[in-house]
């Protein structure tokens, strides 16, 4: 899917407020009442406004990002950049073209398509609570953080295919972006580093904390008996044993596993990046938050439904799969779960859907007057 | 000896005496804080650890096994001398897959002759509380303990996993996960079982080493030796309690919350460890 066509220069036409805001900021910054300020006066761009995210008490602390603190202006800039196809060679593909909000910022296609029609070798991962992504980004964890991740798709020939110098030049000559960078970073200078910092700031606000599970966790509601039973199955070693790789409350540990979907090494996964043969076939355990809304599944998108995923884990695994995770092979020690057991697990997984996240207007396309209203409910029972 | 040489010799001697006497009464000051680096030396009865699928080690029951995963946590790590005890880590999380976790440093040791290190393997009742270490993000995510084994219990102590031989050419998985337990009757692995109070299986060890004095501008290197095979060896064959642990003792490998398995690991674990410490560099003045 291509992101809905937007002019490569949408901000001037659609956001005349920005110039006015910039003018106000400049005016404010130029004032000096002679009152003997202790701190040096802010620069001509003003100081960005620190942004603090509110989290439930049962969430892990946000990993600090001292080199890229969240600010209102940085997040706003990142939102525009995330949704703007200006960062692709032919100005047709934005980050959001492969990461759609109402499917947990995933891609409903098995393999995403670049501006030249190339298919990516893996499924675009969802982006849910990425601020806690401390163990590397991408399915193989090959880059350290969100900033580094954001450097890759723009120049990648099979994706957005725009060399960074060209991308920076486009933004620098844009009528509005220099002022937005000024507000976010203190000067109108645009660099690759600032672009990816802004996008990473925006992504760190992709926080899902209001699913039915969360409301239960906060004591606001009760889970239905079948959902509660599904939770117990999720946690039980003899049933789902899901928690070891998809632990609460993020429902991902961010660790890497060979879950046995290939009996031989087809895609090296983490092993290609680490150089360690013991990592061959390992991929990151993704978050299960909003899992029912974000098919297809696995790093290559081979499964269309959650049920297919559960049935994969419910099999008797061949013992000779290289690097097969012991947690998978342990499954062989038990009788398979029944269809009713799998239904029960699905009941619980449905409680992880967070529509406040999937339709959060603050995360939506700023170029679009309305948020897309289509939600994939094909798997809902 | 000429007069000039005599004067020089006497002056030098007086200077040395003066320096020596003054030093006896003044507090010793150091140019730099003393640093100690703690690392872990993993072995299987002396063999180095090589991760892999194929069983390549033998436990005391004669069962061949491999190791594929090792994560563990130690807490309250304290260095001891005759005069001082210094906590060098509140909590250290080790993951064999993550080199950044495989050593840690402490800076600021006083000038002492260090004789031993102690720590808790796992976390005690005070520390093993749900989400207590939420700020240690990767530890929190990797080692979280499931709520249906204790609503307010926090973390695994260890995850040691691999394959073991079940026949000449057949293998099965083992998952030696340690941690506490409290059941409320709803856990499908222990249906109807309830505990009035939680069980804890952490243990404390004190590991002596050859005393070592780290001199000014020197540093210490502390090595904690960890013999993984000792988890499965009867720690005291003479005590009348058989704590030998073989994987086939628990064929379904549900040992989280299994009092027998956790009890054996608790008994054997303290014998897995020893320590060495050496001083690197430094001078006496």
Can you characterise this structure?
The complex is a heterodimer of chains A (381) and B (285). By secondary structure, chain A is mostly helical. Chain A is built from 14 helices and two strands; from the N terminus they run H-H-H-H-H-H-H-H-H-E-H-E-H-H-H-H. Chain A has a two-stranded antiparallel sheet with strand order 1-2. The longest helix of chain A is centred in the N-terminal third of the chain and has 15 residues, at 16-30. Chain B is mainly β. Chain B has one domain (36-283). Chain B contains three helices and 13 strands. Chain B has helices at residues 3-25, 137-143, 259-269, and strands spanning 34-44, 47-48, 57-58, 64-65, 69-81, 85-95, 103-109, 113-121, 158-167, 170-178, 203-213, 216-227, 273-283. At the A-B interface, helix 9 and helix 12 of A face helix 2, strand 9 and strand 10 of B.
List keywords for this structure.
heterodimer; A: 381 residues; mainly alpha; Cytochrome Bc1 Complex, Chain D, domain 2; 2 domains; 14 helices; disordered N terminus; disordered C terminus; B: 285 residues; mainly beta
Please give the radius of gyration of chain A in angstroms: 23 Å
Percent of residues in helices of chain B? 10-25%
The CATH class of the largest domain in chain A is Mainly Alpha
Question: How far apart are the first and last residues' alpha carbons of chain A, in Å?
Answer: 26 Å
Q: Can you summarize the main beta sheet of chain B?
A: 6 strands, antiparallel
CATH architecture grouping of the largest domain in chain A: Orthogonal Bundle
CATH T-level fold name of the largest domain in chain A = Cytochrome Bc1 Complex, Chain D, domain 2
Which structural class fits the helix and strand makeup of chain A? mainly alpha
Helix content of chain A: 25-40%
């Amino acid at each position: 899917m291509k992101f809905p066509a937007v002019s490569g220069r949408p901000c001037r036409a659609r956001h005349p407020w920005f110039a006015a805001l910039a003018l106000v900021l400049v005016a404010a910054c130029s004032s000096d009442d002679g009152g003997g300020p202790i701190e040096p006066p802010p620069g001509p761009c003003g100081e960005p406004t620190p942004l603090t995210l509110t989290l439930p008490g049962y969430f892990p602390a946000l990993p600090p990002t001292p080199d890229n603190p969240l600010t209102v202006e940085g997040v706003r800039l990142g939102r525009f950049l995330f949704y703007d196809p200006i960062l692709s060679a032919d100005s047709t593909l934005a980050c959001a073209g492969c990461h759609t909000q109402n499917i947990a910022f995933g891609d409903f296609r098995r393999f995403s398509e670049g501006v030249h029609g190339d298919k990516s070798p893996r499924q675009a991962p969802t982006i849910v609570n990425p601020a806690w992504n401390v163990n590397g980004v991408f399915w193989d964890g090959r880059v350290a953080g969100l900033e580094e991740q954001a450097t890759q798709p723009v120049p990648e020939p099979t994706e957005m295919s725009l060399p960074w110098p060209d991308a920076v030049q486009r933004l620098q000559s844009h009528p509005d972006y220099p002022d937005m960078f000024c507000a976010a970073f203190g000067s109108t200078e645009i660099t690759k580093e600032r672009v990816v910092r802004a996008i990473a700031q925006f992504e760190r606000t992709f926080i899902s904390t209001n699913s039915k599970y969360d409301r239960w966790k906060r004591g606001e509601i009760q889970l239905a008996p079948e959902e509660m039973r599904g939770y117990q199955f999720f946690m039980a070693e003899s049933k789902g044993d899901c928690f070891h790789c998809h632990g609460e409350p993020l429902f991902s540990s961010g660790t890497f596993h060979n879950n046995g979907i290939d009996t031989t090494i087809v895609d090296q996964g983490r092993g290609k990046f680490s150089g360690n043969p013991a990592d061959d076939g390992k991929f990151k355990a993704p978050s299960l938050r909003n899992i029912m809304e974000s098919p297809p599944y696995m790093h290559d998108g081979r499964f269309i439904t959650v049920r297919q995923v559960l049935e994969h884990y419910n099999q008797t695994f061949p013992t000779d799969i290289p690097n097969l995770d012991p947690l998978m092979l342990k499954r062989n020690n038990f009788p398979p779960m029944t269809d009713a057991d799998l239904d029960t697990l699905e009941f619980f997984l449905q409680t992880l859907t967070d529509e406040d996240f999937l339709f959060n207007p603050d995360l939506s396309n700023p170029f679009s007057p309305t948020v897309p209203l289509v939600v994939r409910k094909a798997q809902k029972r | 000896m000429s007069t000039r040489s005599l004067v020089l010799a006497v002056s030098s001697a007086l200077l040395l005496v003066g320096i020596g006497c003054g030093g006896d009464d003044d507090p010793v000051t150091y140019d730099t804080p003393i640093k100690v680096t703690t690392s872990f030396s993993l072995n299987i009865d002396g063999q180095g650890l090589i991760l892999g699928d194929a069983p390549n080690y033998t436990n005391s029951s004669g069962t061949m096994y491999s190791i594929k995963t090792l994560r563990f946590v130690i807490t309250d790590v304290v260095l001891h001398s005759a005069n001082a005890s210094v906590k060098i880590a509140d909590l250290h999380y080790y993951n064999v897959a993550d080199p950044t976790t495989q050593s840690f440093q402490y800076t600021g040791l006083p000038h002492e002759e260090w004789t031993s290190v102690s720590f808790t393997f796992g976390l005690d009742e005070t520390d093993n509380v749900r989400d207590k270490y939420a700020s240690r993000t990767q530890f929190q995510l990797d080692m979280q303990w499931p709520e249906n084994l204790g609503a307010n219990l926090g973390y695994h102590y260890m995850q040691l996993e691999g394959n073991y031989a079940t026949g000449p050419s057949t293998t099965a998985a083992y998952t030696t996960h340690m941690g506490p337990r409290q059941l409320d009757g709803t856990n499908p692995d222990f249906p109807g079982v309830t505990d009035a109070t939680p069980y804890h299986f952490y243990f404390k060890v004190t590991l002596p080493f050859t005393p070592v004095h780290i001199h000014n501008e020197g540093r210490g290197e502390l090595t904690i030796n960890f013999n993984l095979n000792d988890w499965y060896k009867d720690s005291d064959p003479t005590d009348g309690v058989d704590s030998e642990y073989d994987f086939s003792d628990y064929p379904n490998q549900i040992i989280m919350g299994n009092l027998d398995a956790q009890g054996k690991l608790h008994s054997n674990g303290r014998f897995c460890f020893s320590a060495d410490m050496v001083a690197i560099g430094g001078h006496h003045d």
